[in-house]
């Protein structure tokens, strides 16, 4: 399934930007690797019972490590908190370029708090950086 998703994204990029055959090959491999890393994080972080109550709050490339098999692992849980059912995080914690909009909204008293989608936003920013080589 990963290869199919990577192919669809790459084909769209090729059609829009008229890339050479070599660029297509390199981009396809890059997109595929991003999917593999995200899948590894989802398997290691997103599926366990414990992670369903932990809000990391500082997902960024510096806190994602790859092991010798290429599996991604999240590190640096110093700003993480455990949220119970219905609880919201309210403090502004993490690294600003990777923070979800709701974290800023909470700091400005525009919302009551935030939960786990804030971590998924941060992971999305990391994926965007990997794809754009930022």
UniProtKB/TrEMBL annotation:
Q: Where is the Protein kinase domain?
A: 1-134
Q: Which Pfam families match?
A: Pkinase
Q: Which domain of life is it from?
A: Eukaryota
Assigned keywords, A-Z:
ATP-binding, Kinase, Nucleotide-binding, Serine/threonine-protein kinase, Transferase
Signal peptide annotation: none
For whether the record's keyword set contains ATP-binding, the answer is yes
Q: Which PANTHER family match?
A: G PROTEIN-COUPLED RECEPTOR KINASE/RIBOSOMAL PROTEIN S6 KINASE (PTHR24355), SERINE_THREONINE-PROTEIN KINASE 32B ISOFORM X1 (PTHR24355:SF30)
Q: What is this protein called?
A: Serine/threonine-protein kinase 32B-like
What is the native source organism of this protein? Answer: Limulus polyphemus
């Amino acid at each position: 399934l990963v290869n199919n998703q990577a192919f669809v994204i790459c084909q769209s990029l090729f059609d829009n930007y008229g890339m050479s055959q070599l660029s297509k090959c390199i981009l396809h491999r890059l997109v595929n690797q991003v999917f593999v890393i995200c899948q590894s994080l989802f398997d290691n972080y997103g599926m366990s019972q414990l992670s369903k109550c932990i809000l990391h709050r500082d997902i960024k490339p510096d806190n994602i490590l790859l092991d010798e098999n290429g599996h991604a692992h999240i590190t640096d849980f110093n700003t993480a908190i455990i949220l119970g059912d219905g609880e919201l995080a309210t403090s502004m914690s993490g690294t600003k370029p990777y923070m979800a909009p709701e974290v800023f909204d909470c700091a400005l008293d525009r919302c009551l708090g935030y939960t786990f989608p804030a971590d998924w936003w941060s992971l999305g920013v990391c994926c965007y950086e990997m794809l754009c080589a930022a």
